[in-house]
Design a protein that fits this description.
444 residues, alpha/beta, Rossmann fold, 2 domains, six-stranded parallel β-sheet, 20 helices, 8 strands, binds zinc ion, G1PDH
Length: 444
């Protein structure tokens, strides 16, 4: 319980989960605190006044988030005589280096940035405050992704979306009604993003078994305690049922914390995230505006689970030593797919060349242990049905993706990051093409 009225409980008490740690490394205690209530705006304003007094504070929102929470918060801050500067982004802002420069120019002597919003507004505030080494508070407006509590921000730099380190907020102030009433599509996106962890955790275990030994069970233990509160309630999340949507939101907050605890995005970002990053980066070439992060990740989950399904059916006798040939074939596609950005992508892919070469002997050698991991992944049919049960369409058309662009990402997404994922396993086991076709069947 909090003795100081300006302190709120931490989102996670690490002590509750330390028994789940299997790596024996230090895990930094997450410092993010959470206040949740219909009076969150008043409480935030009082805290802000008490902590920063007359020092300048910068408040960020866009027209949508102003309407649902920004206006009320602004009034409360003014009523508390906070030294306030506000900035409203245009509708549907994109987190670019240009907007980061705009925010930086507004900071002046500000000691705190408050973002009212979800993905973009949150990332703009998180990244700008982190760069300026000032405090950051967040007022989330949708359960749409797990970035509220994560240590990264997605920013488009010179036209290419990058995932950059950024300090998580010190405080979150949540208006439950706003989260609950967020548009259906945003709720569906968050549902996909939080469930990615089910798949990416196995990606991480496979990588750890083959190479790094760096897996820790702590993030999975943390999520296991809350998973049922959202994974079993897609219809309720679709309908905006309070306990299901707040269960989802809580899962997203924990999943972001789990990432920062592990000191890596591995627990919540595997092959299913690579295809989403692939489509984000391809905007510079195709002009296709990316779909919501979580929805692209959802399509990636169908692909990853289709890979696991194919891998499960494969006998170790069918494994061929073909790492060199497969690496060369994928590397040859990089200039074709990436044009002016090919050098940067090639660098990432070359970084894992030595690891990929070892697949020739490691896959047969570890096949039995890998199989016991493959067996734990639910089928792509299960996830496709689950995501559709939220009530919003779940297919390539809805995400403005062509079959060609999906296939391109499925077969080449593994080249854009040096992390080893199920996409590398499937490619080297010779089942990536077949799994891509399986996934397409479910996404048409
Ligand atoms: Zn650990
Ligand atoms: Zn994600």
């Amino acid at each position: 319980m909090c003795k100081d009225p300006h302190n709120h409980p931490r989102i996670v008490d690490l002590q509750d989960y330390l028994s789940g740690c299997t790596c024996e490394q230090e895990h930094p205690a997450p410092e993010v605190t959470l206040y949740r209530g219909a009076d969150a705006c008043q409480v935030l304003a009082r805290d802000c006044r008490a902590i920063y007094q007359d020092q300048p504070v910068l408040l960020l929102f866009d027209p949508d988030t102003y309407a649902v929470a920004g206006a009320e918060l602004q009034q409360c801050l003014i009523a508390e005589n906070v030294n306030l500067t506000t900035y409203q982004f245009d509708s549907h802002p994109v987190a670019t280096d240009t907007l980061i420069a705009t925010v930086s120019a507004l900071i002046h002597a500000s000691v705190l940035i408050i973002s009212v919003g979800s993905g973009t507004v949150n990332d703009l505030g998180k990244y700008s405050s982190s760069e300026a080494k000032i405090d950051f508070w967040s007022v989330p407006t949708a359960p749409s992704m797990n970035g509220y509590t994560s240590g990264i921000a997605a920013i488009k730099v010179k036209g290419v979306k990058r995932t950059l380190p950024a300090t998580p907020p010190q405080r979150l102030y949540v208006l439950p009604e706003v989260i609950q009433q967020a548009p259906l599509k945003l709720r569906q996106a968050g549902f996909c993003d939080v469930l990615a962890k089910v798949v990416s955790d196995i990606d991480w275990q496979c990588e750890s078994l083959l190479f790094s030994g760096g897996y820790c069970g702590l993030p999975a233990t943390m999520m296991a305690g809350v998973e049922k509160s959202y994974s079993e309630h897609p219809e309720e999340i679709g309908r905006g049922d309070e306990s299901a949507v707040m269960g989802l939101f809580n899962g997203l907050l924990l999943s972001g914390v789990a990432m920062s605890l592990a000191g890596s995005s591995a627990p919540a970002s595997g092959g299913e995230h690579l295809v989403s990053h692939f489509w984000d980066m391809r905007e510079a070439i195709t002009g296709r505006e990316p779909e919501l992060h979580g929805l692209q990740v959802g399509a990636g989950i169908i692909l990853s689970t289709a890979c696991y399904q194919r891998l499960r059916q494969l006998d170790s006798a069918a494994l061929q030593p073909q790492a060199d040939r497969i690496f060369a074939a994928t590397a040859a596609q990089i200039p074709v797919i990436w044009g002016p950005y090919a050098a940067e992508v090639d660098k990432q892919f070359q970084n894992k060349r030595e690891l990929l070469k070892q697949f020739d002997h490691l896959l047969p050698q570890k096949w039995e242990e890998l199989q016991s991991l493959f067996q734990q992944v639910p089928s792509p049919e299960y996830f496709a049905a689950l995501f559709a049960r939220t009530g919003a369409p779940f297919n390539l058309d809805a995400f403005r993706l062509t079959e060609e662009e999906f296939t391109l990402a499925a077969l080449n997404g593994r080249a854009i990051r040096e992390r080893i994922t199920v996409l590398d396993l499937a490619a080297n086991a010779g089942v990536l093409e077949a799994a891509t076709e399986d996934a397409l069947q479910l996404l048409r």
